[in-house]
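The following block was generated as part of the benchmark described in Methods. Ligand: zinc ion.
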Amino acid sequence: MRYLILSDIHANLTALDTVLDTVKGRWDKVVCLGDVVGYGPDPNEVVDRIREIDATTIRGNHDKAGSGLANADDFNPVARNVALWTRDHLRPENREWLEKLPTGPITVDTFMMVHGAFRDEDEYVFAPAQALDSLLDARAQVTFFGHTHLQGGFTLFDNKVGVLHFKPPAGTNFSTLTTDVETTYLLNPGSIGQPRDGDTRSAFAIADLSNNTVEFWRVPYDIEDVQKRMATAGLPEPLILRLSFGR
Ligand code: ZN
């Protein structure tokens, strides 16, 4: 079974549709690690698309704030502004769908998925010491996480934590990880709608765990197209600009 692993789409329909077109026929089922909305101009269209492709989805912090399930008080002013804009613009049935998303971690097939960390869905896992807790808590060999918008991951083998980087060079679309049976993996597919690792291309993964492979993809999309819609919607300038830098 090949799983398309999406995360942090952030209401960017241009990026999501480009990715879906690019990998058409290469996956059987799809999962989403949260933050379907927030930051971007297309909350309804992205929720509609995720429901249409029947993605098994867990909630992210922006889904909680955008739906009104959580207040956005711990967000910075720019993110709070868009959370409230999202809440105003979501159709009632989409707001309800976001509100009902399950909290990670959950198990899908042979792997697990979580938005942030195992013990706290809102925790950012940037460093090996933070990853260790989740690697030890994991009840599967492979766990996918999001939230940081950084494609990469961590391994636990022989009581040592390792760091993985996947960055296919420009001109290529993906690099492949071959998993080892004695290693535990915490893998981040990166962000579809707002990459932050200096590479502006959409990031995601395709996992074929019965064949021990995970592909880490980067796909360019029409950034100006989504920036125009953000400007028309009156979304904050810093959010529009950062897409051009992948930061
Ligand atoms: Zn996010």
